[in-house]
Amino acid sequence: MTRRTIALLATLAGALAPPLAALAAPPPSTSTWTASWYASPHATWDADFPLPTGVPAVLAQQTVRETARLSIGGKRVRIVLSNRYGTQPVPIGAARLARVTRAAPAAAIALTFGGQTAAFIAPGAPLVSDPVELPVAPLDKLEVSVYLPQATPLTTFHWGAQQTGSIEAGDTTAARPRQPQALHGRALLAGILVESDTRRDVIVALGDSITDGNGSTPDQDRRWPDVLAATMAQQGIAVVNAGISGARLLGDRMGVNAAARFGPDVLDQPGVTTVVVLLGINDIGWPGSAFAPQEPPMTAPRMIAAYRQLIAQARLHKVRIVGATLPPFEGALQGTPFAGYYTPAKDGVRRAVNRWISESGAFDAVADIDAALRDPQHRTRLLARYDSGDHLHPGDAGYEAIAATVAATLGKTDGR
């Protein structure tokens, strides 16, 4: 190759190359996407478990319609669907989003995924919609409808929604159904993100059925994270609920163990700054009951080691972690097939765990839920006005007391 040829090639290369400015990274956006609502996905279970899933095993040519109340608002919205525990793709034929008003849902807006109205949720993965131009306010309610055109095993769901959805024949994403089938769990919807011009803090509530809201009034947003969200919305702070009924620190079945789900359910929430951990009563109550008849009794040291792992994960990501003491549960589920959930020995484990949570200094702060809910005349029982009736789950008043206790704890440790 001659010098003239080399010079000619160099000239051509310079002419064809894009200017350096074109290769530079675009200016950073001032907008921020933040988690505003969440429901932890978990796997369905086999028929040998003593609780039914309450959802169909397969959905085919049906629309799933779900309602969710936001914690904070924004100028645009994204929807997150989940196939976290699926082993095959979930085909989405159509999906729409509508604002829920007192009269009826407003006109539904078509959702797209990479510009397409149809999509697949990959096995083990989420599916995030394109942004929707829909300004929303704090505590707005949105309705998400998703059409499944093919036979699809329902392997990922959320059991305790405390919010009634529906399953409808055919593609009704753009219409109102006539005879829907009630859905008392969640089938596809896992998260809602909002976009705003300023950074927003997010509090994640990690827990079990007490965080999931069992015993609260359905369809009224009376779970303790709902009540906390209404309080924190005044400060522009989001609250999302990562509670799973039956969840445990150390065991799997109704959701995987806490350390396994801490990443996707807590650390992966856009904007997370704080996690409140109210979790562990099922670790104590399940062994020897119909839930886990062959499991050996739980011990406080095992639970403490599990808490320390959650604390370690949070600290690695600079997330503040608040430990919540476990409320009393004497008489829990008495007269049901789950009798034996409570024993005096199990309560001894609870009290030992609570002492460690309160006195060890391991958490960044402590919300003393035990003190807030117990009967001062019978400290191993819930105060009657806070009890839903099963002596395990609070009712609406009890959840308000939990939210007030958490809010007070956050206020003491927050520099704002």
TrEMBL record:
Domain SGNH hydrolase-type esterase: 205-401
Lineage: superkingdom: Bacteria
Pfam families: Lipase_GDSL_2
InterPro entries assigned to the protein according to its UniProt record, in alphabetical order: GDSL_Rv0518-like, SGNH_hydro, SGNH_hydro_sf
GO molecular function: hydrolase activity, acting on ester bonds
SUPFAM superfamilies, sorted: SGNH hydrolase
Signal peptide start and end residues: 1-24
Keywords: Hydrolase, Signal
Protein name: GDSL-like lipase/acylhydrolase
Annotated source species: Duganella phyllosphaerae
